[in-house]
Write a sequence for this structure.
């Protein structure tokens, strides 16, 4: 099988496609078009809901929303994936989990804004066009909720979209939509990346409670070419098998462990371990105090993963691809062995990429399917991706897809 590379749609082209879908569905022109990107997290996986650190970049692949506000409480949404199926919901009296299917994500944003006290936010009509691969672990859901949040902020003149600090309010609405309306647990990494990343930079996010916008995010240069490398993403196209409740189970285990250790979250534990004279011994003492082996493994991943993030930033700023790759491998091994969120397709893709010459590779996202990332020598992305595809064919897996990850811009208005 020949590997397919997913190219981002030009923003002007996709915006016009969204306008055309809107007009064909609703019979008039939209108020405007907005878009938000998918994301790749370079390192710091399953750390956001543990008040930890992570390092995402925005992708050039985006979700576009053509939207107009309404005077009533009706929300109507349509997607290019099924233009004949228009989802509808009423905001008045709407409760959490009150909307089924994909429409829950955009409807949930307006509902969340109302819940936050913005009573003048009403219904809307919207049409979605996207080139973020669905089910790939690249956060197509956050691209949808964040583009919706930015559009509603604009048309209802909430005034949050124009500043980094203001966007925290929109991020919160997107997170609430996913957690409470769509029932998809998320810790805020995806939405923060979609709303706060910038072109040619990664975003060092700190999820400790109580931080200001300035304290919670640091922009870091992201120049793969400077270390003669590329970031390859391979979407395994594997179903998220056995994933029902797995994310919530790990999150609950981490929260229980923090409580047993007398801390508000595992970040507090990680900071104490890092500050110890002998961090390895300190980590061993923490793990020994926990009651069961599964909890020990989960906590070990979180604490060591938080520590890897600043090390990766340091390696990247030094243009040290070998050290950055070592950290990616350590993260991937921990996700496989300690957090246990990989499946066969992810493991095969990672192993093949490493064997084919990647500096480092690991699964990305929540796990149980989705994508891997690989830091590879410049010019080798297609050959390494093809080797993954060849291995998948031999094993009888679905054909994977690939894309080149380039640090891109955050959510914004297109038309």
């Amino acid at each position: 099988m020949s590997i397919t590379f997913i190219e981002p749609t030009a923003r002007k082209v996709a915006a016009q496609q969204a306008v055309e879908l809107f007009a064909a569905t609703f019979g008039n022109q939209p108020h405007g078009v907005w878009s938000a990107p998918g994301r790749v997290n370079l390192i710091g996986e399953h750390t956001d809901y543990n008040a930890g650190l992570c390092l995402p970049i925005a992708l050039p692949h985006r979700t576009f929303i053509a939207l107009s506000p309404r005077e009533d409480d009706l929300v109507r949404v349509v997607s290019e994936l099924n233009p004949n199926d228009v989802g509808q919901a009423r905001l008045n009296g709407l409760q959490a989990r009150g909307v089924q299917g994909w429409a829950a994500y955009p409807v949930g944003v307006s509902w969340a804004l109302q819940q936050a006290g913005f009573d003048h936010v009403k219904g809307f009509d919207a049409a979605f066009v996207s080139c973020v691969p669905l089910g790939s672990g690249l956060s197509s859901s956050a691209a949808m909720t964040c583009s919706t949040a930015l559009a509603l902020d604009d048309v209802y003149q909430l005034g949050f979209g124009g500043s980094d600090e203001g966007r925290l309010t929109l991020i919160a609405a997107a997170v609430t939509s996913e957690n409470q309306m769509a029932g998809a647990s998320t810790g805020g990494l995806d939405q923060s990346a979609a709303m706060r990343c910038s072109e040619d930079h990664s975003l060092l996010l700190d999820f400790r409670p109580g931080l200001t916008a300035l304290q919670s995010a640091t922009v870091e240069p992201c120049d793969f070419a400077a270390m003669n490398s590329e970031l390859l993403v391979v979407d395994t196209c594997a179903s998220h098998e056995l994933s029902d409740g797995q994310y919530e189970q790990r999150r609950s285990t981490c929260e229980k462990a923090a409580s047993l250790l007398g801390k508000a979250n595992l970040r507090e534990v990680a900071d104490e371990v890092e500050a110890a004279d002998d961090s390895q011994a300190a980590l061993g003492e923490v793990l020994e105090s926990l009651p069961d082996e599964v909890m020990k493994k989960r906590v070990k991943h979180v604490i060591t993963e938080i520590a890897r993030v600043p090390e990766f930033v340091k390696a990247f700023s030094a243009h040290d691809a070998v050290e950055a790759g070592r950290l990616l491998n350590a993260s991937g091994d921990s996700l496989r062995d300690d957090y246990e969120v990989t499946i066969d397709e992810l493991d095969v893709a990672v192993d093949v990429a490493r064997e084919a010459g990647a500096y480092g590779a690991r699964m990305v996202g929540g796990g149980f399917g989705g994508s891997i990332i690989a830091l590879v020598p410049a010019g080798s992305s297609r050959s390494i991706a093809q080797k993954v595809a060849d291995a998948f064919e031999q094993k009888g897996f679905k054909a994977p897809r690939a894309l080149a990850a380039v640090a891109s811009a955050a959510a914004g208005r297109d038309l």
Q: What stands out?
A: The chain has a mean pLDDT of 96. The two ends are 39 Å apart (CA to CA).
